[in-house]
Design goal:
The complex is a heterodimer. Chain A has 22 helices and two strands. By secondary structure, chain A is mostly helical. Chain A starts with a helix and ends with a helix. Classes of the chains: A mainly alpha, B mainly alpha.
């Protein structure tokens, strides 16, 4: 599976001089900052710093840009834990349990859990990429719209598990998100619900909507309180407790390994990526847990599942880029642009002819993961200070940042107004115990679902069931999904009944 | 005694039904073909059904006995007006960003927001608002790839 000669050349390229590593630490810091500020996205950071790579050689440029990617993936989780603001869609599930942990004064442990799970997840993702890049590339080529429909459906099933009070409320919130995703031009070019506003042609901007419904509505709920963490004794940023949280990650090896594997596989599917991976992984951790009722109330497994999956999906997303030359998302699209700046074309010939460079990029990323652990630990002391800021100052300041973030995404008034509209919606939903995350998931996946469904219908000639029988990967994915959704709870119920009989 | 639908819950369901109804109507009138309604039609049906279920369930369910818990302060009705005032202020701030300038709008909103959220002292809130605005304009704003209207800074 590994070309030994190319591997030794890659090691030589990486370690014969310090030059390739020169930009890794700045890249990780840029990623951490961009990832942890709502509205600043990793892809934006990579695009902003892309011109800097003109003067670098290819490997140095790749390591710099991928270090922004690696740092950003973790940075998004920090604000999700501390303020319930997912820095990007890949950190949505991190907020589900990370934020309740922070509110209980366990922010140090939650940050430690997130960091360790991210590091392990990213490590697993890149190791898998190194070992399986060629077979994975062949697998990715066989993924069609029907397989994507199954994966997106899997992500959507999480909606049913996000009910705080009643299942019907969770479903209504999720379906409403799906409905909102249908605003704007459809996959087939039909204009719907644009109400004469050019801003709505591409649909509702998802990230500002997410910032509004998660963050702004939560901040309104916090108004009138004193501090994020009520107990003064627990507001400290303790290095020891962060490390304790990090070590606690390894108490959940099943969740960690499953999350990392799910993230790597889902991340490899172009267009799906980390935003679905963290949701699927969280949903699976909750379904298979012996104590699913603890999820959403500060369960450490929830943080581990989400962070391991979103970090390992980074390695997965590199599969399609390196092996096929297909960007799986916005961040890898910027990497592809860097490829073209350096006259390099990704794809099978790149892997075949420049295996040493491919291995160098992967090994370089493994090195970045180790550096992330150190930098993450050092920066958490600074980022964690947010729990010491009085809420009377924190609430309006972060609300203002949310609106700015909305503008940073769209560049028009549509961004801040979307934040405000979704803040009001989120406030209403939270007051009535509706899970706001379900609406975000619907909004995020609805457009993808529609596009893949339409393509499936077109390819299958209007008979998707017969077409499914010709698609073994879709059949297997569908069977696994059914097994997980129906089989696992049935098995658990049977075991519980047997236990009560004994 | 049966339960009753709270005003905010009724408003939420009303908003969901109104927006969903409008999107469905707009999609059907744009083109009533399967590829255009593949998500809209089943989702609209599910929303209508779930709304009815929720309304009936709320009205039929016995009213819960008043309970005392830690979060009473956060969910009580007196807080609703404060929340709505801050929400209205936030909406006005979002609108004002590109109209009066990012710097002035942020300064005024943060100052008012700190006071509304219980910030004490007469000089600390405006000083903090000014420092925070400057930080946003010269820090956050410099990273924007778009032009940003400012009045003073």
């Amino acid at each position: 599976m590994i070309d030994q000669f190319a591997l030794s050349q890659a090691l030589d390229l990486l370690f014969s001089s310090f030059t390739p590593w020169l930009w890794v630490i700045p890249g990780l810091l840029i990623g951490l900052v961009f990832g942890s500020i709502p509205g600043l996205q990793i892809s934006m950071a990579m695009a902003v710093f892309l011109p800097v790579t003109f003067g670098m050689d290819f490997l140095q440029a790749m390591l710099f840009l991928t270090s922004i990617f690696t740092g950003g993936a973790y940075g998004g989780g920090v604000t999700a834990i501390l303020m319930n603001i997912p820095g990007s869609s890949s950190s949505i599930a991190t907020a589900f349990d990370g934020y309740p942990m922070a509110r209980q004064g366990k922010h140090n442990e939650a940050l430690g859990l997130g960091l360790a799970a991210s590091v392990v997840g990213a490590f697993v993702g890149y190791m898998l990429l190194m070992l399986l890049i060629q077979p994975l590339a062949a697998f990715v080529l066989k993924i069609g719209p029907l397989e994507m429909v199954v994966v997106v459906l899997w992500g959507l099933t999480l909606i049913a598990t996000l009910n705080d009070s009643a299942l019907s409320k969770g479903l209504l919130a999720g379906f409403f998100g799906l409905m909102l995703s249908q605003i704007g031009m459809s996959t087939t070019g039909v204009m719907r619900t644009s109400v004469g506003m050019p801003y709505l042609i591409d649909g509702l901007p998802v990230v500002p909507a997410m910032i509004g419904i998660f963050a702004a509505s939560e901040l309104l709920r916090l108004r009138g309180g004193t501090y994020l963490v009520r107990n003064e004794d627990q507001r400290d940023i303790s290095f020891g407790r962060i490390l304790k949280g990090a070590s606690e990650t390894f108490k959940y090896p099943g969740v960690l390994v499953r999350g990392s594997l799910l993230g790597a596989v889902i991340g490899a599917i172009p267009g799906v990526g980390s935003s679905v991976a963290n949701l699927v992984s969280y949903g699976e951790a909750k379904r298979t847990s012996k104590t699913p009722e603890r999820f959403g109330k500060g369960a450490p497994e929830g943080v581990v599942a989400a962070e391991s999956a979103n970090s390992s999906s980074e390695g997965g997303s590199m599969t399609a880029l390196l092996a096929l030359g297909i960007p799986g998302g916005a961040a890898t699209a910027v990497l592809l642009a860097a490829f073209s700046f350096h006259n390099i074309i990704g794809g099978p010939s790149f892997i075949r002819n420049q295996t040493d460079i491919v291995y160098s990029i992967i090994l370089g990323n493994l090195g970045q993961v180790a550096l992330l652990a150190v930098l993450g630990l050092l920066s958490l002391r600074l980022l964690g200070l947010v729990v010491r800021v009085p809420l009377s100052y924190l609430v309006p300041s972060v609300l203002a940042m949310c609106a700015w973030g909305g503008y940073g995404i769209t560049g028009t008034i549509a961004g801040p107004l979307t934040v405000a509209g979704f803040a009001a919606l989120g406030w209403l939903m939270r007051r009535n115990n509706y899970p706001v995350a379900a609406t975000v998931i619907g909004l995020l996946l609805g457009r993808m679902m529609e596009g893949e469904l339409v393509r499936t219908m077109q390819i299958s000639g209007g008979n998707p069931l017969r077409y499914m029988l010709e698609r073994p990967i879709a059949l297997i994915l569908f069977a696994v999904m059914l097994l997980v959704l129906i089989g696992a709870p049935l098995l658990k119920a049977m075991r519980r009944r047997r236990a009560t009989e004994v | 005694m049966t339960g009753k639908l709270h005003a905010t819950h009724a408003a939420l369901i009303g908003i969901i039904l109104a927006i969903s109804g409008f999107i469905t109507w707009s999609a059907v009138s744009a083109r009533a073909s399967m590829d255009n309604l593949i998500v809209v039609a089943p989702v609209a049906a599910a929303i209508a059904l779930l709304s009815v279920v929720l309304i009936v369930a709320t009205l039929v369910k016995p009213a819960p006995a008043p309970a005392e818990d830690d979060d009473t302060e956060e969910t009580s009705d007196p807080g609703i007006w404060g929340d709505m005032l801050l929400l209205a202020g936030f909406a006005a701030f979002c609108y004002a960003l590109t109209h009066i300038g990012f710097d002035l709008a942020t300064f005024l909103f943060v100052w008012a927001g700190v006071v509304m959220s219980g910030g004490k002292g007469w000089w600390q809130p405006p000083l903090f608002a000014a420092a925070f605005t400057a930080l946003l304009v010269y820090g956050f704003g410099s990273l924007f790839p778009y032009p940003m209207l400012t009045l003073v800074l």
